[in-house]
Amino acid sequence: MPSPRSPLSRLFTVLLAGVLAGLVLAVAALPGNLIGGQVAKAALGAYAELPDALRTPTQPQRSYLYANDGETLITTFYDVNRSDVPLAEIAPVMRQAIVAAEDRRFYSHGGADLRGIARALVANLRGGGTEQGGSTLTMQYVRNVLKTDPTRTAEERQAATDQTVGRKIQEIRYASALEKSLSKDEILNRYLNIAYFGSGAYGVAAASQRYFGKAPADLTLGEAALLAGLVKSPDEYSPIDGDRAGALERRAYVLDAMAETGAITPAQAAAVKAEKLTLHPTAQPNGCTSVAQGHDDWGYFCDYLRQWWLTQPAFGSTVKEREQALRRGGYTVVTTLDPKIQQTAQQQATAVYGYDNKRALPIAAVEPGTGRVLAMAVNRHYSLDENPAGQANHPNTVNPLISGGDSVDGYQAGSTFKLFTMLAALEAGKPLSTGFDAPAKLPTRYAADGEGACDGKWCPANANPEWMDGYRMMWDGFGRSVNTYFVWLAEQVGPAKAVEMAQRLGITFRADSDAAFAKDNAENWGAFTLGVAATTPLDLANAYATVAAEGTYCTPVPVVSVTAANGEKVAVGQPSCKKVLDTDVARAATDAARCPVGQQSAYGQCNGGTATSVDRIVGRPVAGKTGSSEQNATETFVGFTPQVAVAGIAANPDDSTDLVGAPVQAKVIDAVARVIRTAVSGQPVQDFTAPSRELAGDPQRPKPQPTPERDQPRQRDRGLPSDLLRWLQHRRG
């Protein structure tokens, strides 16, 4: 029960009620023509100029994030747990209960209830109970708005509750003016959406969820009476973290009041009072670390969306304003996250490595032609919970392991970068049939010394000479992942062209050493085609999605639509795409990318692949590429159809010297392929369009002739130049 108030507070309430009662009774006794004149203006004020906050409420509301179906809730963001609902979505018994509990003459007074003030005066003079101030629902609404208006200063918000006669008279003036501007139902609706019901719940929608786990439209008579009883003293009466017995007493009071107003019968009131109090407390999630129960893997996508949000000028001119908009703006955000694809990606990531494994398999899925991010999974819990001793980022972490950023530069993706060299060559006019007798080791023009060098030059080597050496064109050079072919091809067009191509397709160099090579030494970055630069699954998936979309690059985007609290669509989230490759060039690269996955090119030139299980798993036209970094430190696969591109990279995010090993490559391939299969399930089968004969060229395979390079002993070591070896060692350290 409420604690007794101080004698001073009690005295003020009595005096205030007396002053107001005398004031309004004096006005009421005046002739009608004077009430309409200057005396009435002096007493109650003329039609007041309402503050903007009362004309157009700007109260904070929580924002909702949904999956791409618009129904699956991911999480909410809020500073204040509050969400507006129209009156039609509030149960009639809730409306009746709040009127009976707080303002029985609500529908008959004009904002200030003269009888109520007089009744409060008499009750306070008699004593023996809680003091009454005679405030109407309209006056309470005015007070609630002014004390929480985010556009007002802290001092102005504090003044809205000051115990002064002047403040009370101003409240009456505003309430009277408001009643001239809005209908009773609109005022009631606004009141129900702002009133505090305890336990952190502002507004009837938040309260219904907090106490009963349901929408306000579904409240029963007993539930409505309980909530209506809370507003008198929310924190004291709250049955969750306050006074359960007090809450029941208040419920009984409201039920009796409803019977007195005729909203219900005395028998109904008695029946509900006999009911046990049944609660279903529901904690509203707040932020990315409290996503829907059992789906903490969604947190990585949620965090990616939040980072994207903070870059959007539509939500404010500064990062602080955009953060505030997300937490207070009442937005409804339909994201691009596909729950089915996400579920498969998470299952596959954790099937390769468990949550407690120091190694990780981050996976990203992107839709070609839109850039929509469909899934982001990794074998980690998105959580701030403490990890066991010695485990830096597992099983819990909030680091962006899939998208990169902050301290995450990414991971070497190996031969998947050969795509950029092939695209640069095709763009330079070299057809797919461009042939080269690929040796086991290839002396290059790049200076090097030490192990792996040939006469002072860098000599990259094929990982599997027996299978890779020989006359190769782009088709089987890509299909068999022939290192010496692609290093040679990069020399023909210039490594800088391959670096520029990667950047054009969205590869971001987050590591300082990579950025420096790209900026200052790209023309001598011969090893770039072998995938020594760090990248992320999201960047890689989107780069390959550009090829799948026949040369149209789309900036990755995590939202389908954003709707403001007033129902208006915000102009963000639309695909932002541009043509970055000639269509025929993209088609030619796709044709070669059919070879690694065990399918056949349009020109019949595939003769072996490094990921042939993909054809069987996906069961429709598909393309892709494997990648193994130096000494199998990482293993990568990226695959695509016209409808989806998916990339996964097995690595140790905390220690690049921890080599994941070659055996995991088959698991990574299968994992990515199964995600692709889920993504295209139920969609029409789409084939790739064959490239022109001009870009295919004349695929004649001349009999290879011996060369000095081919006569050298075959070595499996890739033989990176000494400066690159030192650079790699520096990165691993």
UniProtKB/TrEMBL annotation:
Residues 708-720 have a biased composition (Basic and acidic residues). Residues 73-258 form the Glycosyl transferase family domain. Signal peptide: none annotated. It comes from the Bacteria. Residues 364-663 form the Penicillin-binding protein transpeptidase domain. It catalyses: [GlcNAc-(1->4)-Mur2Ac(oyl-L-Ala-gamma-D-Glu-L-Lys-D-Ala-D-Ala)](n)-di-trans,octa-cis-undecaprenyl diphosphate + beta-D-GlcNAc-(1->4)-Mur2Ac(oyl-L-Ala-gamma-D-Glu-L-Lys-D-Ala-D-Ala)-di-trans,octa-cis-undecaprenyl diphosphate = [GlcNAc-(1->4)-Mur2Ac(oyl-L-Ala-gamma-D-Glu-L-Lys-D-Ala-D-Ala)](n+1)-di-trans,octa-cis-undecaprenyl diphosphate + di-trans,octa-cis-undecaprenyl diphosphate + H(+); Preferential cleavage: (Ac)2-L-Lys-D-Ala-|-D-Ala. Also transpeptidation of peptidyl-alanyl moieties that are N-acyl substituents of D-alanine. This is Transglycosylase domain-containing protein.
